[in-house]
Specification:
Elements lengths: L1 H25 L1 H19 L36
Helix pairs in contact: 1-2
């Protein structure tokens, strides 16, 4: 039983690693933006700044991903604390 659990965990970890490699090869900008968004979320939630991907953007309270408008021209609403 324990052997099966570890086998499932190893397979799941392998799938995550392979998926991450495939994403970083085929969509490097999407992965970078996702990691930057995670860094910003960590900063906004805890006040701690991390530079996970080493690109110099270590998380901030303001959005650094373009204008404050969603696709279609609708203005984004900001929630205090997030």
């Amino acid at each position: 039983m324990v052997k099966k659990v570890f086998a499932v965990l190893v397979v799941a970890l392998a799938c995550i690693v392979v998926g991450g490699l495939v994403l970083s090869v085929f969509m490097p900008n999407a992965v970078t933006q996702f990691v930057n968004a995670v860094e910003d979320t960590i900063y906004k939630g805890t006040g701690l700044s991390f530079d996970i991907n080493g690109d110099g953007n270590a998380g901030s309270a303001e959005s650094s991903y373009g204008a404050n408008y969603a696709p279609g021209g609708k203005e984004r609403k900001e929630v205090p604390g997030f």
